[in-house]
TrEMBL record:
Keywords annotated in UniProt: Acyltransferase, Cell shape, Cell wall biogenesis/degradation, Cytoplasm, Magnesium, Metal-binding, Multifunctional enzyme, Nucleotidyltransferase, Peptidoglycan synthesis, Repeat, Transferase
Residues that coordinate or bind acetyl-CoA: N385, Y386, S404, A422, R439
Leader sequence residues: none
Function: Catalyzes the last two sequential reactions in the de novo biosynthetic pathway for UDP-N-acetylglucosamine (UDP-GlcNAc). The C-terminal domain catalyzes the transfer of acetyl group from acetyl coenzyme A to glucosamine-1-phosphate (GlcN-1-P) to produce N-acetylglucosamine-1-phosphate (GlcNAc-1-P), which is converted into UDP-GlcNAc by the transfer of uridine 5-monophosphate (from uridine 5-triphosphate), a reaction catalyzed by the N-terminal domain.
Gene for this chain: glmU
Assembly information from the UniProt record: Homotrimer.
Family annotation (Pfam families): Hexapep, NTP_transf_3
Region of interest (N-acetyltransferase), ranges: 251-470
Protein's organism: Alicyclobacillus acidoterrestris (strain ATCC 49025 / DSM 3922 / CIP 106132 / NCIMB 13137 / GD3B)
Cofactor(s) essential for the protein: Mg(2+)
Protein name: Bifunctional protein GlmU
Length: 470
């Protein structure tokens, strides 16, 4: 059975009050339209067509390589959008599902059921319905005695009794391809909006002796759609809960799921522990037995097994197995922290590789550097990587010791096993086993402070004739 899908994504979404197209707004770290495409991919369809219209360039860019594109030059209703897509539907397609790019929570199992019911009954169309607590503003679905859809009544046209009905039309349909083509060709804009409504195809088919089969959605959360920022926040909440529940069932521990945020694109191993305030975004991957949080945000970060990251921020970085990061560390893009490394409080690392078993314990900046294995980097060390025009690299060899308050003024290379004395500003390369000291000679004036303070006080007092004048 050859199956196609038509995803309606032409409207810009004016109620979003955004320069961004509605279907490109993210839900749990992924644009809504990509949630839909991922779901359709799981359903195993043979073809996906996305209908675009206003501000379409970015939408086309987002779905490139994953869907055919149909352009709806004027937005004249859902039926008109399907008309724009039909020339692209494969000639051998037998079933076509129509759904919306702003309803990202629909599940592949639901779409499969919608297809299967139609195909097994050899019906012209099946329609996804939902029994909702508050149907305000939605079209009501009514069934005949045989259980087929007898009519769909929009709220503005409904009687008081009809408005008390709670079964609604989700707007998601599975058609026999030939029935879709025939019924869409008969649509007319005979309404106040002068638009072509896809819902009218159900009446056309029924009049031709082919009534629609209703399929009730099992979880009403799946049909939640987005028209404004409030609905976007609601869909985000529903999606986040689904993601959290999935990872809990997969063997991840969360001390407080309500304060844990995980993007749809994140991957977690079994026996990971997430503490309150953890935010995992992008292509982040966490290895088994690692502990993340509290109050930690990782974006596009790969974390090895048995690592601990707490009260820290990391972006586009790697943290090796058994490493400890934080509290209050910042790993900027390009940071590669090796195995069993200690990155302590108020340490910032940027575009640098830190070798295995190295300790960068506190109050240190490492930028554009390559630090070897088993190196001790003391408190207050700074790699001076920027000269005002260009960035320069610092290299420190394995088994070296970098004392507190050392400035490594790049470009500079320190060999293996070197020892840099605290307070040194390193301006030249040093080889293996080198002892580096570069302090300014100390000047000590004994019995000086009290006399100095007295002279200073006398010089600024009125009696002393303030040398600054009045």
């Amino acid at each position: 059975m050859t199956r196609s899908a038509i995803v309606l994504a032409a409207g810009h979404g004016s109620r979003m009050k955004s320069q961004k197209h509605k279907v490109l707004h993210e839900v749990c770290g992924k644009p809504m339209i990509l949630h839909i495409l991922d779901t359709l991919e799981k359903t195993g369809l043979d073809q996906v067509i996305v209908v675009v219209g206003q501000h379409r360039e970015k939408v086309m860019e987002a779905v490139a390589g994953r869907a055919d594109i149909a352009i709806q030059e004027e937005q004249l209703g859902t039926g008109h959008a399907v008309q724009a897509a039909l020339p692209y539907v494969r000639e051998d397609a037998e079933s076509v599902v129509v759904l919306y790019g702003d309803a990202p929570l629909i599940q592949s199992e639901t779409l499969e059921q919608l297809f299967t019911v139609r195909e097994e009954a050899q019906a012209a169309v099946s329609v996804l319905t939902a029994d909702v607590a508050d149907p305000t503003g939605l079209g009501r679905v009514f069934l005949d005695e045989a259980g087929f859809v007898s009519k769909i009544v929009e709220e503005k046209d409904a009687t008081p009794d009809e408005r008390r009905h709670h079964v609604i039309n989700t707007g998601i349909y599975a058609y026999a391809a030939d029935a879709l083509r025939r019924s869409v060709a008969q649509l007319r804009p005979d309404n106040a909006q002068r638009e072509y409504y896809l819902t009218d195809t159900l009446a056309i088919l029924r009049e031709g002796g082919q009534p629609a089969i209703p399929v009730a959605v099992r979880d009403v959360d799946e049909i939640a759609s987005v028209n404004d920022r409030l609905q976007l926040a609601n869909v985000e909440r529903l999606c986040r809960r689904r993601i959290i529940e999935g990872w809990l069932r997969a063997g991840v521990t969360m001390v407080d799921p309500d304060s844990t945020y995980i993007d749809a694109t994140v991957q977690l191993a079994q026996d990971v522990t997430l503490l309150p305030g953890t935010i995992l975004k992008g292509q982040t991957v966490i290895g088994a037995f690692s502990e993340i949080g509290p109050n930690t945000r990782l974006t596009d970060v790969v974390v090895g097994e048995h690592a601990v990251v707490q009260y820290s921020v990391a972006v586009d970085s790697r943290i090796g197995a058994g490493a400890q990061v934080g509290p209050f560390a910042y790993l900027r893009p390009g940071s590669d922290v090796g195995e069993r490394v200690k990155v302590g409080d108020f340490v910032e690392i940027k575009n640098s590789r830190i070798g295995n078993d190295t300790k960068v314990s506190h109050l240190t900046y490492v930028g554009d550097a390559e630090i070897g294995a088993n190196v001790n980097v003391g408190c207050g060390v700074i790699t001076v990587n920027y000269d005002g025009e260009k960035k320069h690299k610092t290299v420190v060899g394995d088994n070296s010791f970098v004392g507190s308050n050392v400035n490594l003024i790049a470009p500079v290379t320190i060999g293996e096993g070197a020892y840099i004395v605290a307070g040194t500003s390193v301006t030249e390369d040093a080889g293996d086993d080198a002892f580096v000291i570069g302090r300014v000679p100390q000047v000590t004036k004994p019995n000086y402070v009290r006399a100095w303070k007295a002279r200073k006080k006398s010089a600024t007092s009125p009696e002393g004739g303030d040398s600054r004048g009045h």
